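Training component of the fellowship. As part of building independent skills, the fellow (R.M.) carried out the full modelling exercise for a liganded target. The chosen ligand was adenosine monophosphate. The inputs are recorded below so that the supervisory panel can assess the work.
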Amino acid sequence: MVKKFSAPRGTSDIFPGEARLWQELETRARLRLACYGYNEIRPPFFEETDLFVRSVGQTSDIVQKQMLHLLPQSRAQVADAPHPVLSLRPEGTASVVRAYIQNGMDKKESLSKLFYIGPMFRGERPQKGRLRQFHQIGVEAIGPDSCSPYLDAETIRLALQVLDDMEAGPYRLKLNTLGTVQDKENLSKSLRQRLTTSKKDLCADCQNRFDRNVFRVLDCKNKTCRQIVARLSMDDAHLEPSSRDYYQKVKSALKTLNIAFDEDPSMVRGLDYYTHTVFEICSSALGSQDALGAGGRYNNLVTQLGGPQADAVGFALGLERIMLARKEQEAAGVPPVDVFVISLDETSLASNFQLADILRARDMIVDMSFKTASVKSQMRIANKKGARLVVIAGEDEQRRGVVTLKNMRDGSQRQIARDACAREIKDLL
Ligand code: AMP
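Fellow's submitted model of the complex:
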């Protein structure tokens, strides 16, 4: 019998039909990245293991459990080094920062805006949306004294626009700040204090993490650990006033761009290098592995790796997850509704009917209920149809010339002038 080979666990072949879609989506991403002044960098697929240990962090899950090492060339290397010398890259930031330092890019330009598209490798337990070889589109904006809340907001805007260009479907932006290195130190001290009494109930991994890197307890998936973390009632007491101010500015810049977000004070991200802004974009169409992408600011990594003072911010989007989210939407059969219009009473039905027509004339997918059932039951229909926005109006709103606009991604709602609402709604989609 001749042995038959199959692709290694956690990897997949991308066949021609699918590869065409990959190319198409990558082209859309490249166009968008160019609009923001990003240029491509193609670092190697493997690096010295220590580069990842020192950037992603010794206590991170990636370094502890997921690195795929390359076999050492000689026994002497095993004896000399605490880790095998070379590893496949589990993420892109470390390589880009290494290349930035090695090539003295700080002397060539004040802000280097670099993007990469390519495979990453992590020895994770494979499941839907979690592979051992997967692909990321990532960006890094690195430069001396380049720390600005506007750059953070621009980076988040870019991530969302790339996802929109790729038609990755409805998603939710989660936002938090970690503050400076000193703020992070304050937070770990306070977390240790607050977790001391529950330490014995944490999982074995977290008991270990407690002293080495207490932040990892916040990301733990274990049910008991999650319950303990949920009871912590996280606040911003560990932040210096300047860090709070920075975060406020990031949020205001996002608001000026009409970007909805949910604040999640317990989101610390699994990589050690982040400072200040961190974010995650989660798909509403995916199951447990729902993060389409994530990123944040990392102002100390360049110096930590022996480079000059340079601030940085970036993100990485997972291409397989984007493909999955698109498939889930397709499987749902009909495209999700952009706007669902709810009438609170018979009187407002006619004007809402007219409003739906005005919105459709601007190429939005709009639906409405012609029965004035309770708001709750109409909301249920809107949810079923995957509506991104809901417009609610009754007699009272009609008289005052306003409508209530509910954003289904983050649950926020506000009143806007009816006359100008079509443009405002279109901009939000
Ligand atoms: P991270 O580098 O862990 O912040 O991941 C950034 C994005 O890459 C995630 O939001 C996912 O979309 C994707 N990703 C990370 N790990 C995997 C994996 N093992 N398989 C597939 N996609 C992944």
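The panel noted the following from the submitted structure. The CA atoms of residues 156 and 369 lie 35 Å apart. The chain is about 40% helix and 20% strand.
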